[in-house]
Amino acid sequence: MPLFTAATARENAAKSHEARRANSLAVKEARAAQRQLPQSESALAAGDRALDTFASKRLTRVRKQLDKLDRMIDEESDPAKLDRLASAQARLAEQERQLADRPLPGSKRPAQEPAKLSRAALLLLGSNSAGQDDTRPRQEQR
Fold it and tell me: Nearest-CA neighbor of 100 among 61, 48, 72?
């Protein structure tokens, strides 16, 4: 029995048309919702300011706690307490790094320098002859 007949083709075409109509309506609704977004941008900006003030306050608190831990470590002589203070300092230092928006060492690549063209590439591009400046007078050939 064949899988594709005139009847199954009609059914599949109807399903396809219905899916296209539904997708078209969803796209129109999404575009209408996007048009309404600029009105709420001021509310988002206010929320961003609130987050920025929270992050800066949190960063200040974490740095104060790190200073306090440094003083406590200087005064402590018990190895068990020193270990706990050192692990607390490591946790706070990680929070401070994230709040200060500093990347982990080695995770940020330096910007790439522009590639220097070889002499052959310069000749092919037809730029000034193999890197010579146009300001220098060219020597005439004999």
Answer: 61
Element of type H or E holding 58: helix 41-75
- DSSP string covering 65-101: HHHHHHHHHHH---HHHHHHHHHHHHHHHHHHHHHTT
Instruction: Indicate the pTM of the whole model.
Output: 0.45
pLDDT band of residue 58 (cuts 50, 70, 90) is: very high
Show contacts of 60-65: CB within 8 Å, 24+ apart: 62/92, 62/95, 62/96, 62/99, 63/96, 65/92
Q: How far is CA 94 from CA 25, 52, 54, 104, in A?
A: 48, 19, 17, 10
Which three-class secondary structure state does DSSP give residue 129? Answer: helix
Please count the helices (runs of H) and the strands (runs of E) in the chain: 4, 0
